[in-house]
Amino acid sequence: xxxxxxxxxxxxxxxxxxxxxxxxxxxxxxxxxxxxxxxxxxxxxxxxxxxxxxxxxxxxxxxxxxxxxxxxxxxxxxxxxxxxxxxxxxxxxxxxxxxxxxxxxxxxxxxxxxxxxxxxxxxxxxxxxxxxxxxxxxxxxxxxxxxxxxxxxxxxxxxxxxxxxxxxxxxxxxxxxxxxxxxxxxxxxxxxxxxxxxxxxxxxxxxxxxxxxxxxxxxxxxxxxxxxxxxxxxxxxxxxxxxxxxxxxxxxxxxxxxxxxxxxxxxxxxxxxxxxxxxxxxxxxxxxxxxxxxxxxxxxxxxxxxxxxxxxxxxxxxxxxxxxxxxxxxxxxxxxxxxxxxxxxxxxxxxxxxxxxxxxxxxxxxxxxxxxxxxxxxxxxxxxxxxxxxxxxxxxxxxxxxxxxxxxxxxxxxxxxxxxxxxxxxxxxxxxxxxxxxxxxxxxxxxxxx
Length: 450
Prior knowledge:
By secondary structure, the chain is of the alpha+beta class. It is built from 16 helices and 14 strands.
């Protein structure tokens, strides 16, 4: 849809103002809690600038007139950005995050700030301060998080683009839960300047959209080194829109049965396997791989890094939601002990896995994005990994967080539905800087209309 809107606006078939009016009406009718603020004043100014450029014969950019919603973890200059927390209820940034500025320069129109889990520390998008978001396919269930507002807004057509952030799966989990596409790029591919950090060594920002092609286009706008973020790399930006059309013939896809499928619900595993079969039918070679990490455990050390963010505000803990307070308190004893161990373990694991898969000629890894149906709102524990009660935040990230640890790109694309009728996402990951493989494979799955 973003491709069509931009082409129509650039070609003079529609005006950005007309597109904006249509989406402002939709945003005002939101019943899922996805929209926290409608940014009409800014949107009208940006739409007018796009239309003025078209009238003057200038190119307004590849996202001309595309309505974009920004997760409320991402700074928008002059517009309240709360990070989902009462701590920042009145916070108004003085400048845009890098990603917001890049979208504006590409002609996108900022129409809304979208719901997020408090401080991005959670996977349900249930927020005690500003209201919780519901799943568009079943309002009794969560939309995933912490970019759940982005996923819900995209699935219902409130916005056309909505980049999210991902520390342990918060682009891919809501993409799977809401039946859209979400790509976590390689660590360092997209600037994090102006985005509230949760875990600086694991955080990513990336595109979320309704189609693979739209994600590819967004990534072309978002990617690149930034002087504001020393973590970014000068690796060249590619034409991912073309790469997404390249197919998978001749690529080798690894499937880690023990890590990703052993504890996944049978109906979800079956849907994911249909996506893998679509890759095989398109010419990919499917082989078994070993992730070299305890099955389904993710990274046991993440909480202590996140807790360092809050050690400077102990007197404000009463303003935090109960789930965030619980996690900070649980992590504090680990701070002094595990920080150096965590960093060293990750570096060693990344190097080992990169060498192992590169030597074996693995181009992609395919797996379910999540192991179970999105839980119902209010559920705090789920049965997972052979245990009766596992914290829902941990469980929802169990199959995604490993690619944050590795820093590799990973995309979630719809791959059928589970027995409850909810969308199932297939996760496709590749070695660093190979987003083109993720997008090409995701396009094959998407075209199979599973």
